[in-house]
Design brief:
The chain is α+β, with helices and mostly antiparallel strands. Helices cover 36% and strands 27% of the residues. Helix 1 packs parallel to helix 11 and helix 3 packs across helix 7. The longest helix has 26 residues.
Length: 478
C-alpha cells in the first residue's frame, strides 16, 4: 500500500498550487510529454484518444448541420496574408515564417498557418461565381502554429490541433444565423458530452477576432476560478469578401459580395475537461468522452477462475461499453490508484468472494461510491451508473460555476469580488475600451463576453460610473 499512496502523493494538491497540480495531472496521467521543440507538446495515446472522441462527436454534429470537410495547405504566401489589414495586424506577433526551401531563399516568405481565413478566401474567389454556388459550408481538421511566448500543455502551445469552419453565404442574415448556429453546437457539445457548463455571448470589439464584424464565445469556469475561452464563432460580414474580391451573381444578375463566417474549437478544450472535473487523485473524465469508460480489476487474480471471470465479463460488456480488463501483475491497490489517476469513470472489482456470491463491485470515479451488483445485472446497472455519473458531473460543475458568479455595481465591489470569490463577475459597462484597459491593467481581469440574456443590474459602468450600455461577464482567464 505504500506504493499505492506514493502514486497519489506525486500529484500536488490543487489547493496548494493549482498550476503545478495541472502540470502533474497531464504528465502523470500520460496525456502529454514535452518535446525537444520548445513550446510544442507530444500528445500521447491517452491524450490523443480524448481528442479523437471529441473530433468524432463534433464532426458528427457538424455534418448534421450540412458541414463538409476539406483540407487547405499549411503555408500562406505573405502577399495573401497582407490582403486583410486588421487580420494580419492581429496575427503578426504570432506568425512563424518559412524563408528557405532547402538551401535556396524563397522569393516570397511563407507563413505557417496561424488560421486559414486567407486561404479559404483565395479559394472562394474562384470557386464561387453564382448564387447557385452558395452557401459553402466547409470545415477542416488540422494543426496551426502561433509563436506563443508562454506555453502550457493543451492551454497554449506553439502548435495545436483544432477544427476551423469557414462558410460563405449570399446574405448577411444567413451568415448571422450560421454564426449563432455553430456557437450553439459548441455549447450543447460542451454541456452534453464534456459536462462543462458554459456562458454564451458576444465579445467586445477589443476582444473580438482580428478582421471579424462580431465574435461570439462560449466561456467555461475552471476549478480555480479562472475562465477559459472554449470555442468561438465569428461573423465576418463582407469585409474579407471585399478584400479578396469574392463576388457572385445574384438572381437579378447583379454582382454581390458574399458574407462569411468562421468558427473553431481546439485541443485547449482538453484543458477545460481536466480543470473543471479533476481532483487531487488525477483526472475525472465524463463517461461520454472517456476513451475507456469501464476498467475491470481482478482481485487476487492468481487464484483459479478469477482472470477467466474478469475476461468473460469484459467480453460481455464490449458490445455496449468502452471496457478493458487490467490483468497486469500490479497489486489491486496500485491498479485502483492508477485508474483513478487516469480518470476512468467506473471501476469493476471482482475477486474470489465476489465470484462465490455471483456478483462484482462497481465503483464510480467521481464520488467513489460502491455498488455490489449481481453479475447478470451488470450491463443494466452500468448503463444507469454511467448516465448518472455524466449528469452528476454536469450538475456539480454548474453548481461550482454559479457559486462563483458575483454581481458588482461599482469598482470597489468588483475588486473585492476578485479577491474573495474568484470566478465570473457580472458588471455593467459603458462601452468604452478605456474601461476595459483600466480593469485589465489594474486587476488582470478581462471582459469575457456580453451574454445574450442581458439584464440591467445597475445604471452605471462598474469601472467609471458613467451610464451603462451592456451587462458583461468579467474574469481572469487562461
Amino acid at each position: 500500500m505504500a506504493k499505492d499512496k506514493k502514486l497519489v502523493e506525486s500529484i500536488t494538491s490543487m489547493q496548494e498550487d493549482f498550476a503545478q497540480w495541472y502540470t502533474d495531472v497531464v504528465k502523470k496521467a500520460e496525456l502529454i510529454d514535452y518535446s525537444s521543440v520548445k513550446g510544442c507538446m507530444i500528445i500521447k495515446p491517452a491524450g490523443y484518444a480524448l481528442w479523437e472522441n471529441i473530433q468524432r462527436e463534433l464532426d458528427r454534429r457538424f455534418k448534421e448541420t450540412g458541414v463538409q470537410n476539406v483540407y487547405m495547405p499549411m503555408f500562406i504566401p505573405e502577399s495573401l496574408l497582407n490582403k486583410e489589414k486588421d487580420h494580419v495586424e492581429g496575427f503578426a506577433p504570432e506568425v512563424a515564417w518559412v524563408t528557405h526551401g532547402g538551401q535556396n531563399a524563397l522569393q516570397e516568405r511563407l507563413c505557417v498557418r496561424p488560421t486559414s481565413e486567407t486561404l479559404f478566401c483565395d479559394f472562394y474567389k474562384n470557386d464561387v461565381q453564382s448564387y447557385r454556388d452558395l452557401p459553402k459550408v466547409y470545415n477542416q481538421w488540422c494543426s496551426v502554429v502561433r509563436w506563443e511566448k508562454e506555453t502550457r500543455p493543451f492551454l497554449r502551445s506553439r502548435e495545436f490541433l483544432w477544427q476551423e469552419g469557414h462558410t460563405a453565404h449570399a446574405t448577411a442574415q444567413e451568415a448571422q444565423e450560421r454564426t449563432e448556429q455553430m456557437l450553439d453546437v459548441y455549447a450543447k457539445f460542451c454541456e452534453e458530452v464534456l459536462a462543462v457548463p458554459v456562458i454564451c455571448g458576444q465579445k467586445t470589439d477589443k476582444e473580438k477576432f482580428a478582421g471579424a464584424k462580431a465574435t461570439y464565445t462560449i466561456e467555461a469556469l475552471m476549478h480555480d476560478g479562472k475562465a477559459l475561452q472554449s470555442g468561438t464563432s465569428h461573423n465576418f460580414g463582407d469585409g474579407f469578401a471585399k478584400a479578396f474580391g469574392i463576388q457572385y451573381t445574384d438572381r437579378d444578375n447583379q454582382l454581390q459580395y458574399v458574407h462569411q463566417t468562421s468558427w473553431g474549437l481546439s485541443t485547449r478544450i482538453i484543458g477545460a475537461i481536466i480543470m473543471v472535473h479533476g481532483d487531487d487523485s488525477g483526472l475525472v473524465l465524463p463517461p461520454a468522452i472517456a476513451p475507456v469508460q469501464v476498467m475491470i480489476v481482478p482481485v487476487q487474480q492468481q487464484k483459479e477462475g478469477v482472470l477467466d471471470k474478469a475476461w468473460e465479463l469484459c467480453d460481455r460488456l464490449k458490445a455496449g461499453f468502452r471496457v478493458k480488463a487490467d490483468d497486469s501483475e500490479k497489486s489491486p491497490g496500485w491498479k485502483f490508484a492508477e485508474q483513478e489517476m487516469r480518470g476512468i469513470p467506473v471501476r469493476i472489482e471482482i475477486g474470489p468472494k465476489d465470484i462465490e456470491k455471483g456478483q462484482c463491485v462497481l465503483v464510480r470515479r467521481d464520488t467513489r461510491e460502491k455498488y455490489e451488483t449481481p453479475l447478470d445485472e451488470v450491463p443494466k446497472k452500468l448503463k444507469w451508473l454511467l448516465e448518472t455519473v455524466q449528469s452528476d458531473m454536469l450538475a456539480r460543475a454548474r453548481a461550482h460555476r454559479d457559486a462563483h458568479i458575483t454581481d458588482a455595481r461599482n469598482y470597489d465591489e468588483f475588486k473585492k469580488a476578485l479577491e474573495e470569490n474568484p470566478g465570473f463577475i457580472r458588471g455593467m459597462w459603458c462601452g468604452e475600451q478605456a474601461c476595459e484597459d483600466k480593469i485589465k491593467e489594474e486587476t488582470a481581469a478581462t471582459s469575457r463576453c456580453m451574454p445574450f440574456a442581458q439584464e440591467q443590474i445597475s445604471d452605471t459602468c462598474v469601472c467609471c460610473g458613467k451610464p451603462a450600455r451592456k451587462l458583461v461577464f468579467w474574469g481572469k482567464a487562461y
